Amino acid sequence: xxxxxxxxxxxxxxxxxxxxxxxxxxxxxxxxxxxxxxxxxxxxxxxxxxxxxxxxxxxxxxxxxxxxxxxxxxxxxxxxxxxxxxxxxxxxxxxxxxxxxxxxxxxxxxxxxxxxxxxxxxxxxxxxxxxxxxxxxxxxxxxxxxxxxxxxxxxxxxxxxxxxxxxxxxxxxxxxxxxxxxxxxxxxxxxxxxxxxxxxxxxxxxxxxxxxxxxxxxxxxxxxxxxxxxxx
Length: 232
Known about the structure:
Blueprint: E1 8-15, E2 29-31, E3 36-41, H1 44-54, E4 60-67, E5 70-71, H2 77-83, E6 87-90, H3 102-113, H4 118-131, H5 147-159, E7 165-169, H6 177-192, E8 196-201, H7 204-207, E9 216-221, E10 224-227
Parallel strand pairs: 3-8, 3-9, 6-7, 7-8
Antiparallel strand pairs: 1-2, 1-4, 4-5, 9-10
């Protein structure tokens, strides 16, 4: 990936659909390879909506969302679906398929979007599991794991493969403080490989951390997406 070309660009946006049908102001946003945007988003529905917007899943009345130089609205469906394979995402609502075990849930996106052999994916997933504090790939179903271990598994799924963009929907809440250091370490590693990161948070543990290595800070609320000063 070229370090001189944006990973994602939002330009002059007016979405057709908005959370709660409230007007949203979306200024121009451009993230370069290695950028980390920290976004305070207290409403999880609005955070998920914004993540969907970045993934080209929200219809637009005006403007464009470009990912790796491609306008989502101008891509054939199959090409857009394949391109979303370059986006790793931690879903606030989980995003798990209940009838599959957790390991299958972790591997499935890359098995669908890439041609990497399953054994190589499994080996990498085991490495990531250890980095996020799991003893290995979880063998059970979603209902068998604690909330913390599911949060760890969600991070493994998001970081697996070679994402050009990571979207993290409030992965660290107060009860998951032990996940923060491992997640920050993993984010630093992928930023070194030119991955851009959008970290949406409703946690004061993250937003009020003066040492958080963000290159951009925003607030997402019913007033829209607004640049923010360094958290106090």
